Each structure stands twice: as C-alpha cells, then as structure tokens.
Amino acid sequence: MTAIRFEGVSKQFGGYTAIQNVDLDVSAGAFVSVVGPSGCGKSTLLNLAAGLTEPSAGLVSIFGDPLNGLNRRAGYMFQQDALLPWKTVSANVSLGLRFRNAPDAESQARDWIARVGLQNFADAYPSQLSGGMRKRVAMAQSWIVNPDILLMDEPFSALDVHTRLRMESELLTLWTASPKTVLFVTHDLEEALALADEVVVLSAGPASRVVNRYAVDLPRPRDLIDIRTEPRFAELYRQIWADLREEVLASYERES
Amino acid sequence: MNAKAKPPIPMGVWQVLLGIAILASWQELANAGKLDKFFFSRPTDIAARIVDWVRTGSIWPHLIVTMEEAALAFALGAASGMIFGFALARAPRLGQLFDPYIRVLNALPRVVLAPIFLLWFGLGIWSKVVLGVTVVFFIVFFNTHQGVREVDPVVVNNARMLGASEWQLVRHVLIPSALTWVFSSLHISIGFAMIAVVVGEYLGAARGVGYLISQAEGTFDTTGVFAGMVVLSAVVLVIGWGVNRLEHWLLRWKA
Lengths: 256, 255
Prior knowledge:
The complex is a heterodimer.
Chain A: E1 2-13, E2 16-27, E3 31-35, H1 42-50, E4 57-62, E5 65-66, E6 74-77, H2 89-99, H3 105-115, H4 131-143, E7 149-153, H5 161-177, E8 181-186, H6 189-195, E9 198-202, E10 210-215, H7 224-227, H8 231-255
Parallel strand pairs in A: 3-8, 3-9, 6-7, 7-8
Antiparallel strand pairs in A: 1-2, 1-4, 4-5, 9-10
Chain B: H1 11-31, H2 37-40, H3 43-56, H4 59-90, H5 92-107, H6 114-121, H7 125-149, H8 153-161, H9 166-184, H10 186-203, H11 209-218, H12 222-250
Helix pairs in contact in B: 3-12, 4-5, 4-7, 4-10, 4-11, 6-7, 7-9, 7-10, 8-9, 10-11, 10-12, 11-12
C-alpha cells in the first residue's frame, strides 16, 4: 500500500521553480527521510503532501486517492514553533481532539503529556518552556490525533545535539509503538540515516528533483547513541554522502 | 569608613524630594507675592479645596459621571472597533473599500466633533460617550486589524492540520491573536477615552470633572481649576495602575 505518491510533481512560486518533476512513493508504515542541501524544496515537498500548497503540475495521492485540499490523514510537525502561545501545554496538546469534539480530550491529553515527560508542566505556557520541551509538546500535539501519516519538517534542527538525540529516540519509541508513515525532512544525513528505513536525496534547488533513494538496512530497534559508530552506518553514510556532497557543492556554487 | 560602604539613597527618596521642592517653592513664591495667587493659587489652598470636596462629598457625583462616560465610551468603542477590525481583516475587499474613508475619519481631530455631538446628543452623558467612542474605536480597530493580519502563518497552518474548521480557526487562533494587540493598547484606549469625555464635559455639560474645571475657570477660581486637574490626574493614575495589572494577567502567557 502506498501512503504518499508524488507523480511528476512540480511547484512554481511566481517565476521560481522549487521542485521539478518529482516522482516519489512512500509505502504505508515506512519511515522515509528526505535530505538535500538547504533551499532544495524539502519543505515544499511536505507542504504538497499536507495539502497546504497545490502542485503546479503533476499529482499527489494519499492512500490511492488524489489529494484535494488539506490532507486530513496527516499530522504535521513544523520546523518553527507552531504551538498556540496563548494556550497552556494541556490545551495545546488536546487541541486536535477538541477540534473533533472528542469527549475524552482532557484525559488523553494527560496521558500524552505524561508520555512526553511533561506532567509537571501541564499548566505552563509555551513561552515558559525550553526549546526541547516545546518540541515535545508539538510531538504530543501532532500524535494525539493519531494521523496515518506524519510529516516532519526538520523538527529538531533548532535543538542542541544532546536534546536532539533524546528527541530522536523518543520519536522512534513512539513510532515503534504505533507505526505510522513518516516523511521526515532534514538537512542532516546522520539524523536521516539513524531514523529512517529509506533515505531520499534531493538535488540542489532551484528545480530540485529526486537524485537517488537508498534503503537503510540497519536493524531495529535502533540504539541511536551507538548506531553512529556501527560499520554498516558508516558504509551507508559514505555511499549517500557521495551523492549529497555533489548537491551541497552545487548549492554553494549557486549561492556564491 | 569609605564611600563605597554607604548604601545609595533610593531613587524614590529623590523623587519625593523633588516633588516637595517644587511644591514648597511654589508655596513660598506665592506667599512672598512673587506669584500672583489669583493666577497661580497655592498648593495648600488646592489641597484644602480637594479635602473640602471629599469631606462634603460634592466631588463624587462629578467623578462618577466622568468615570461612567469613560467606561461606556471604552466599552462601546472597543466592541465596535474589534468587530469592524475583524470583519475588514477577514474580508480584504471590504477592507479596501472602506480604507480611504477610515483614514479620512481617523485624520480628523476629534475635538472638532464635540460641538456637533453636543447638538445631536444634548448636554447629557451621551454626547461625551460618543466623542469617546470615536477615539477608542480607531485605536482598537487598527490594533485588531493588525492582530488578525499578522497572526503567524505557521500557527494557522498548524491549527488547520490539526483539523480546525473555519470557525475554530477564528476562535482559537485569530481572535486570541487580535486580542493580544487590543490588550497591549488598553492603556492608550482607556487614557484617550478619559481625555475625550473630559474635553466633552469641558465644552458643555451639567456634570463631570471637566464641567467642574470649566465652571471654576468661568468664575476665575484658579484653585478650583488646579484642584480639578489634580483629582483627574490621580484618577487616571489609579486606573492606569489597574489596567497594568489587568494587562499583565490577560497576557500572562507572554514571557
């Protein structure tokens, strides 16, 4: 079963072509990372899958149906802070359920807040939390509505290395407990490799396309602390980096 | 003992000393006849007048009327400003249609409307309330408009992805965002409401602190004018303090 399918998808913003003729299948239940140099249209790809923007050409289908308007089966974790700053942690976490008028929104929110380790901060406002804590709230907020697909746009890029490692582990734990299709965008190849079943390399923008796809055959469950020192990890890293490096260099050239 | 060990005198002490110095020299100059008491009155006379007003209770009806007018002007102005600001921000074509007219009306010095409102609404409280509304409306209108348009698109997209309907988006994202702007302009709008109604009373009324001042002026009672001003400033300061607390509470989610 294919959860997300891009068929010949292009997207233009005015005269600027962000992505050009992208074909990509994401199977249901897979964890797919998309890497590429900055400005290569990774976020555009997610916004297309979310239905927040429409393709200029080509077709996006979700579980076989052409996407029309917002993708109701997807959750989205944004790169920036997207929490509602005037709502407490518990109001933010329960938001999606209250939008659906779920009767047990409050108790489910309590469970999720405990699951991400913030039980002492249920009544705090986002501005009172650290960056890592806000990401946990965002994670609980998007997972609580139990979407079939999770779109993640460099969700941990603003965090320090150690907090980031913890968040990645928590994400994998959550994903193992309830396997969802994850499309995870990052510019960090290590992160992409450590988390995903498959790594997709995008070319430097403008007019990005899929350069190559790599299956990541590292066994699960993965221990993110040690996985980076495993020989197979290093081997895959070298292989993919050979591709990615070209694109990164190309993006340098275009910027200078 | 060296100089460093001495604790510095707190700023508050200096501030009080400055006030005392100003009042004392005013008093002395007036006593010595360098300042004409007829034009400048004396601090002790002004204080005595205020004590007298409070003791006999003659100030309360005026003060209550002024506060009532200001409160009504604020409530009506804020409500209409929010509704219009919201509607015009959500319907951009409507916003464009009204834009030049709103600019023209806002450019008008509101004081010139006072006489026409006196004619239309009479000497009672409503002419002052309406004058106050014309001031408060625009402040709140512009802030609401801004608040709705400047809401973070990422927050909006997040709410939409979480399944918000149009109305839920308005209720949970757009209104709170607009209210942030309105709350942070509470000070200005309440202060301006106060000024507007006092100006209205000054130009024609049967009651109110503005009326009190204009009556005193009409009888060359300088002490009464100053006493009225002191009462007015004190009231505005107290309200300002209350608004500060309220704003702090309403915007408690801000860092």
